[in-house]
C-alpha cells in the first residue's frame, strides 16, 4: 500500500513505478512546464507523465536536469503520438522524444492510443519491444487500450505490456478493464483522475472529504491509491501540487470506497478508444 510519494508498484518485469505522479497535459512548453515540474519534484513527486503530443518534453527534461534530484530517482513516462505509429516511424519518434527530454533511458514508453482504424499498434509494439530489449526503455506499455485491443496485442507479442494508462475517475470506474489488467499483471494507471476538476461538487465526495478534513480532490486520489491504481493528477498551481500529494495521512473505509465506486456512470471526458485516431 502506498504510504508516501516514493512508494512504488512493482511492474511485472520487476521495475518499480511510483503510485503517484504529476501529469503535464496542457502545461505550456517553456517556463510553465519547467516551473511546474520543478515545484512537484521539490514537493517530493518522483514520477512525471508527458507525451510527444503535449509538446513540452524539452521543458520536462530541463526541469529534471536542473532540479538537483538524481535522474535515477525520477520515473519519466512519455508516449508515442498517433501519427507516428508503425515500426520505423515509432523508432524515429522515440529518438526525437529522447533528444527533447535529454535523457539516456526512458522509464516508461506508451502507445498513446490504439487507433484501431490505422491497424498499426501491433507493428508499433514490435518497435517498442526492440527498444526495450536494447535497454533504451525500462518498461513499455499502452494507453487507452480496452480489453479487445489488449486481447489482440497479448495474442501476438513477445513482451507483455507492463502498464495500461486509461481514463479513470469516480464517474468512469472501469471495473471490468481493471479486473482484466489485474489478471494479466498489467498495472492500471488513471488519466484525468480528477475528471478534469469536474467532480468536486459531488455530494458523496464532499461529505467524505469533510469527514476526513480533506478536499474532494484528495479523497479521489486516495481512492485511486487504495484501489491500487497509479494516479497522475495535473496542476500548474504550487498549492494544488502540494494539496494533491497530501493524501498519505488518512484512510478511506471500505464503505467509503464502495460509495465512491457507486458514482460510476461510464462517463468519459475524452474520446472513445474504439473510434478515436
Ligand atoms: N493517456 C492519455 O490519453 C491521457 C489523456 C489525458 C490526460 N493524460 C495524463 O493524465 C494527466 C492528468 O489528467 P488531466 O490533466 O486531463 O486532468 P486531471 O488531473 O483530472 O485534472 C486537472 C485539472 O484539475 C485542476 N486541479 C488539479 N488539482 C486540483 C485541486 N486540488 N483542486 C482543484 N482543481 C484542481 C487543474 O487545474 P490547475 O492546473 O489550474 O490547478 C486542471 O484543470 C495529464 O496531465 C496527462 O499526463 C493522459
Topology record:
Layout: E1 8-10, E2 16-18, E3 22-23, H1 31-43, E4 47-49, H2 57-67, E5 75-80, H3 87-101, E6 106-111, H4 121-133, E7 137-143, H5 147-154, E8 163-167, H6 175-183, E9 187-191, H7 203-212, H8 216-226, E10 230-231, H9 238-245, H10 254-261
Parallel strand pairs: 3-4, 4-5, 5-6, 6-7, 7-8, 8-9, 9-10
Antiparallel strand pairs: 1-2
Helix pairs in contact: 1-2, 1-9, 2-3, 3-4, 7-8
The protein binds NADP nicotinamide-adenine-dinucleotide phosphate.
NADP nicotinamide-adenine-dinucleotide phosphate (NAP) is lined by residues 23-25, 49, 112, 143-144, 165, 191-197, 215, 217, 232-237, 240, 243-244, 270.
Provide structural commentary.
The chain has 277 residues and is of the alpha/beta class. The chain has a single domain (8-198, 228-236), classed as NADP-dependent oxidoreductase domain (TIM Barrel, Alpha-Beta Barrel), CATH 3.20.20. 38% of the residues lie in helices and 15% in strands. The protein is built from ten helices and ten strands. It has an eight-stranded parallel sheet. Helix 1 (31-43) packs across helix 2 (57-67). The mean pLDDT is 98. Bound molecules: NADP nicotinamide-adenine-dinucleotide phosphate. NADP nicotinamide-adenine-dinucleotide phosphate binds next to helix 9.
